Amino acid sequence: MNAALRLAREYGVEIQFADLGDWGVDELRSEYDPHRSVIRINIRVAEQLGVPELGEFLAFSVGHELYHHREHIGEVERLPERKLREIAANDFARTLLQRP
Question: Which of the two residues, 27 and 33, has the higher pLDDT score?
Answer without folding.
Answer: 33
